[in-house]
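Weekly modeling sync, notes
Attendees: S.R. (lead), two postdocs, one rotation student

Agenda item 3: backlog of single-chain predictions. S.R. asked that every request posted to the team notebook include the full sequence so nobody has to chase files. The rotation student volunteered to paste the first one in as an example of the format we agreed on. Action items at the bottom.

Example entry:
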Amino acid sequence: MGVVHFAPLSDGAFIEPLNSFKAHEDQLLKARQALSRKEKYTKNGKKVKAEVQRIHARIANVRLDLLHKTS
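Predicted structure, as returned to the notebook:
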């Protein structure tokens, strides 16, 4: 997010960053909208909140995977 080149290499090539947020943005938007319509601390509200948390975790895991694979 906001980084033009993820990592420059010694031969002058660049590794491009992976924008994992943009790939999951639509899913996150729908889940957040559903969460905003739910009443807090209800069973259905907790389910949707867990879904939002899973999407955020997936975004973080994609970023960590890119770091791990490139290093």
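Discussion: group reviewed the output briefly. The mean pLDDT is 90.
Action items: rotation student to repeat for the remaining queue; S.R. to check formatting next week.
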